[in-house]
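Q: For a teaching session next week I want to show students how multiple molecules come together into a single three-dimensional assembly. I've collected the sequence lines for a complex. Could you give me the predicted structure tokens for the whole thing so I can convert them for display?
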Amino acid sequence: MAEEDGDFQRDEPHPDDREDPVSGELRDRVRLAVIKIAESEAGKYGMEVSQPVVSCIADLAFKFTEQLAKDLELFMQHGGRKSVNMEDVIISAHRNEDLAATLRSFSKDLKEQEPQAEKKRKKAAKKDEKIVLD
Amino acid sequence: MADNPFDAETVHEIFKLVWRRKTQDRERGESTDDLQNEAVGGASKKRRRPTTANANALKLSCELLRIFVAEAVQRAAIIAEAEGLEKVEATHLERVLPQLLLDF
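A: Of course. Below is the structure for the complete assembly, covering every listed component.
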């Protein structure tokens, strides 16, 4: 296992992980995702990514997710709701307009993929058909 | 839409970790997070239901995470490329980190 991953080894729990036994597994999953994205993005420049860089970004990504969780909970509570929704995620990116816009656009696509939205579209499509046929 | 290596379940588990910790800290009366206490309603000592997130919010969070990682790599790669190198090293990442963290 350790051989494939260069000089990466995790025998000790991560210093930040207090009493959480699950964190190790989650950090590993984050690391795997980071490796895939890093190889794909660097590949576009014809480059490789060094092991320390992967580890650092993986650590950052995990911390980012933890911070995101805190922010989302805060926005949700501020909005008087009981569960986090897409608006909360979009607001979390408020410091970067471009990022917020990208997320908003992605969120619209997600909404359109929902079953209810599909029904509405099919109804609208049928109406249009009728008009054309008449 | 290309498949995101970050899956909603993993992100959800990390969220739950954090939300569980917060609930435990609050119950132990250890929470010095005034913002959190205010938002929750400091006077209530009732046990609160743990926070949840809807499926789309999780998918969107995955996308946000993916963009974060992609940006980190891209920005560092640009620096490495400018130096005529073929490998992205720590010094390249170091240089882009401040702005990256400000942007996210």
